[in-house]
Amino acid sequence: xxxxxxxxxxxxxxxxxxxxxxxxxxxxxxxxxxxxxxxxxxxxxxxxxxxxxxxxxxxxxxxxxxxxxxxxxxxxxxxxxxxxxxxxxxxxxxxxxxxxxxxxxxxxxxxxxxxxxxxxxxxxxxxxxxxxxxxxxxxxxxxxxxxxxxxxxxxxxxxxxxxxxxxxxxxxxxxxxxxxxxxxxxxxxxxxxxxxxxxxxxxxxxxxxxxxxxxxxxxxxxxxxxxx
Length: 228
Hints:
Oligomer: single chain
Strand content: 15-25%
Structural class: alpha/beta
Radius of gyration: 20 Å
Largest sheet: 5 strands, mixed
Strand order of the largest sheet: 5-4-3-6-8
């Protein structure tokens, strides 16, 4: 069996489906796992580079059992909007009443929407060369990495968290929930618990932090305490 591997930002590793010596081993199917990675240099100027603020809506909180039902992202350059990504995602996992009530996403809205296998490559192309940002980024990154893994992609991508930033830079604020930070910075939601609606507020929170208490943060090395 021969295969041609094309490398860009992917590092391809082949895993045989059957153990050596099994019957028809010569016809064993080879599975391709891809390493999707971006490693910014410590001196990278975050404020003047490309940042993608993103948010996921999901069927629940378990990265292994639950699935993404919406991906949203806004790409920024020097804190000015450059481009927007938004897609609902079809899943066969049943939506609970709590998720429907929380997000406003109904099962009917997901009928005919693209699968995660279709949406992920588009999103990964969208974030090329960008540092990711999310509020409570540990959750979003865990869901994103799990979804990528199920598609044969090992994702290693820089991401920092506005929740972590707020905890360190705004210690006297009663809590660091997105709603609380929105009120602190005088921001309003156009749609709470929908990806783009939450992202627009997160962009405002990020801007408030970087122009206020975090005004000295500049290079990627300065953001390491907030990385997930």
